[in-house]
């Protein structure tokens, strides 16, 4: 199937066909990252991406989401097997049942327009913290960098309606964290796009494991708030490769 071909007649608006196809490929590719980084067993995790209906206007209620089909193993996932839903969570393209967490993903997209990707896993260490209902304290510079503070705990909620999504949003709205530990269930992460949400899941599991290990060795100390703010600001705005800026020094000496 070439780029731009929608698999068959569907509810996808023609203007979104190419973007949906690209999202199918990206979401299928990103699902392979979950077993790669040891975040899932069998099918116990899912990734979704928002597809914006009107890019010039930005995220809105007519956006779509692309997510994996429920219960399909990661080695069987392809761009064509991804399913497309509206932000009510209703299937509009695909011949398989959407992930059982689709309602949660859809709720997040409706309530948080800045979110472009959502991931859910049952990664061992993060899920163990969720089982205990204890926030992961910000005792590592890596946590300050990536999450801007502790990892919060969301309420226990059963799958199948908006309660998980509501719990995710109510918890993350008051936190810089892109990860939430849903009590008794497991982690959900958000990001500006699906890749960012997958990265958050990877980094969450790493810090969950490290902080647990540190507690076996002693009493890790929380990092001071001002240091967290400084670390978070640097990592979010300076770290890594940034687009080249005009060399203002040359401008000044002209
Ligand atoms: O936690 C659960 C089910 O309780 C789901 O997140 C997990 O099994 C993944 O389900 P899907 O295969 O995405 O439907």
Automatic annotation (TrEMBL):
Record-level GO cellular component terms: cytosol
Reaction(s) the record says it catalyses: L-ribulose 5-phosphate = D-xylulose 5-phosphate
GO biological process: pentose catabolic process
GO molecular function: aldehyde-lyase activity; L-ribulose-phosphate 4-epimerase activity; metal ion binding
Keyword set, alphabetical order: Isomerase, Metal-binding, Zinc
Protein name (record): L-ribulose-5-phosphate 4-epimerase
Biological source species: Spelaeicoccus albus
Reported cofactor(s): Zn(2+)
Family: Belongs to the aldolase class II family. AraD/FucA subfamily.
EC class name: isomerase
Record EC number: 5.1.3.4
Domain Class II aldolase/adducin N-terminal: 25-212
One matching Pfam family: Aldolase_II
Top-level taxon of origin: Bacteria
């Amino acid at each position: 199937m070439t780029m731009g071909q929608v698999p068959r007649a569907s509810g996808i608006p023609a203007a979104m066909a190419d973007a949906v196809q690209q999202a199918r490929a990206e979401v299928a590719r990103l699902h392979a990252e979950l077993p790669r980084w040891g975040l899932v067993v069998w099918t116990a995790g899912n990734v979704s991406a928002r597809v914006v209906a009107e890019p010039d206007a930005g995220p809105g209620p007519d956006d779509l989401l692309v997510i994996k089909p429920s219960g399909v193993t990661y080695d069987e996932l392809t761009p064509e097997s991804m399913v497309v839903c509206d932000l009510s969570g209703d299937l509009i393209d695909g011949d398989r049942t959407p992930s059982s967490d689709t309602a949660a993903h859809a709720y997040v997209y409706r309530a948080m327009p800045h979110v472009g990707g959502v991931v859910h896993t049952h990664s061992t260490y993060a899920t163990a913290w969720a089982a205990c209902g204890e926030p992961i304290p910000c005792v590592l510079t890596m946590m300050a960098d990536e999450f801007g503070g502790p990892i919060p705990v969301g309420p226990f909620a059963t799958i199948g309606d908006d309660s998980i999504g509501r719990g995710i949003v109510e918890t993350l709205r008051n936190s810089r964290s892109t990860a939430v530990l849903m009590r008794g269930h497991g982690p959900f992460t958000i990001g500006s796009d699906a890749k960012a949400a997958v990265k958050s899941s990877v980094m969450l599991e790493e810090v969950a494991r490290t902080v647990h290990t540190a507690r076996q060795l002693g009493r890790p100390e929380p990092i001071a708030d001002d240091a967290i703010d400084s670390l978070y600001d640097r990592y979010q705005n300076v770290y890594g490769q940034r687009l080249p800026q005009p060399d203002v020094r040359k401008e000044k000496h002209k």
